[in-house]
């Protein structure tokens, strides 16, 4: 049985402007930013996790950051950031991914709370993360006239219908089509978080207001490392190969493809285990996955774990021999992928989801969006120790050079400043006592990234 255990255009990231010979970024006036997170926050998955890293790193640069969010969130540290929650009118306490019957109410409450925060704190601009946050910003705009930055984390076309919230798939797809063509236009500036999302914005005629890709960032200094041997012993594992997935288990993540891929792995590695590390419990989808594994006859090779905390979940990555992103055509750069590479785990994913990474250098890519192709890729990496070590090290160096959250915050603050320079309030903002922000050390690899980026993007889809 399954064990459930509970212990090329502008796609290159810009670097900070105004860097002096001493390696210091020029004076940066302190800003007041209202960040909208229309979701449970903070939370240990995807979008909320990436927002948390960005707002903390922005606050570290001396800016005043206010986050308006739902009344729901996990007990995670949030340093130097002002958190404003909507009132609890429903009693709902469980973190859920995707639409629920209460979310329209929460978003209406977000409008009221955001207006309150904007007026009380004399905020300079609004940064809306995702679709619902952008709609909240649009509702506030007639009353406060603040510039809006929109962060594109996903597209609705390949996601909304998968939640099974709407009785009619046709209705869900129609709403997704409408949202994809209208919501990104709310932003005065649009920030894509992957090359795929940048092309998505370009295709909707938003190239002039679309910024360079902003990489999700991670705090490498705070990344916990687990004891591989001790963790394996704790879960009665010895030397069997462990393939790991970490993240939510909603249908759009396509864990069905991963289970079916295991059918092609087990003939070559009959003792292999698939470890599903679930950071947001979902009883309905867990039951579906259990039944699917039984139908495939692989239930004895599948394990499910729910980590007690974010740190525990990151430590558990050390158990695996390789990690996997099973979603084809993913529109963004998955946070799970960033965590895999930061933890120096070799990673397998579909080529159709790959953004910037090179096949055989940073990750191993499955060429076709099928279970067999994914299974063959998993086998190839499992049987080759040298390959595993090479892509683990290459992937780690890639994110080290390009995904430090301090660099992400520096680029984001440049977007804020460029937008505010076009407003009537810029002279007042620029007159504020500025602080000099130390520039992070950039590797030679990062400095050479402009020259190699086109080749890398081509390799990613080879």
TrEMBL record:
InterPro entries: Glyco_trans_1 (IPR001296), Glyco_trans_4-like_N (IPR028098)
Domain Glycosyl transferase family: 228-396
Tree of life domain: Bacteria
Domain Glycosyltransferase subfamily 4-like N-terminal, chain residue ranges per copy: 50-210
Span list, region Disordered: 1-24
A Pfam family matched in the record: Glyco_transf_4
Alphabetized GO MF terms: glycosyltransferase activity
Protein name from the UniProt record: Glycosyltransferase subfamily 4-like N-terminal domain-containing protein
Lineage start: Bacteria, Pseudomonadati, Planctomycetota, Planctomycetia, Pirellulales
């Amino acid at each position: 049985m399954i064990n459930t255990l509970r212990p090329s255009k502008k796609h290159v990231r810009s670097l900070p402007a105004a860097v002096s010979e001493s390696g210091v970024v020029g004076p940066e006036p302190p800003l007041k930013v209202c960040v909208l997170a229309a979701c449970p926050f903070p939370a240990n998955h995807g979008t909320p996790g990436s927002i948390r890293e960005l707002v903390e790193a922005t606050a570290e640069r001396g800016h005043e950051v206010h986050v308006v969010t739902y009344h729901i969130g996990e007990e995670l540290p949030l340093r130097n950031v002002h958190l404003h929650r909507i009132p609890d009118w429903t009693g709902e306490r469980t973190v859920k991914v995707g639409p629920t019957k209460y979310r329209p109410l929460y978003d209406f409450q977000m409008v009221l709370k955001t207006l309150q925060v904007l007026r009380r704190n004399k905020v300079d601009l609004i940064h809306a993360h995702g679709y619902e946050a952008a709609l909240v910003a649009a509702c506030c705009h007639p009353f406060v006239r603040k510039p809006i930055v929109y962060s594109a984390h996903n597209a609705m076309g390949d996601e909304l219908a998968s939640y099974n919230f709407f009785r009619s798939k046709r209705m869900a797809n129609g709403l997704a089509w409408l949202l994809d063509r209208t919501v990104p236009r709310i932003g005065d500036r649009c920030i894509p978080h992957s090359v795929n999302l940048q092309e998505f914005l370009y295709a909707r005629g938003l190239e002039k207001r679309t910024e360079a890709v902003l990489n999700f960032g991670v705090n490498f200094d705070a990344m916990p490392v687990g004891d591989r041997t001790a963790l394996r012993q704790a879960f009665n594992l010895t030397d069997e190969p462990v393939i790991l997935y970490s993240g939510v288990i909603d249908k759009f993540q396509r864990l069905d493809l991963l289970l079916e891929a295991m059918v092609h792995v087990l003939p070559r590695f009959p003792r292999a285990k698939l470890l599903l590390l679930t950071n947001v419990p979902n009883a309905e989808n867990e039951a579906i996955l259990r039944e699917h594994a039984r139908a495939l006859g692989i239930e004895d090779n599948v394990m499910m774990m729910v980590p007690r905390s974010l740190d525990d979940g990151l430590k558990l990555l050390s158990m695996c021999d390789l990690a996997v992103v099973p979603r084809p055509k993913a529109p963004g750069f998955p946070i799970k992928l960033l965590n895999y590479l930061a933890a120096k785990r070799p990673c397998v994913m579909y080529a159709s989801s790959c953004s910037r990474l090179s096949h055989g250098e940073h990750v191993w890519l499955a060429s076709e969006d099928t279970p067999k192709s994914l299974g063959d890729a998993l086998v190839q990496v499992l049987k080759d120790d040298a390959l595993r070590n090479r892509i683990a090290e290459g992937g780690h160096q890639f994110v080290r050079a390009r995904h430090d959250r301090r660099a992400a915050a520096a680029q984001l603050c440049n977007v804020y400043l460029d937008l505010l320079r076009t407003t009537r309030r810029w002279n007042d903002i620029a007159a504020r006592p500025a602080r000099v922000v130390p520039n992070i050390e950039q590797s030679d690899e990062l400095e050479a990234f402009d020259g190699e980026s086109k080749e890398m993007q081509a390799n990613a889809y080879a």
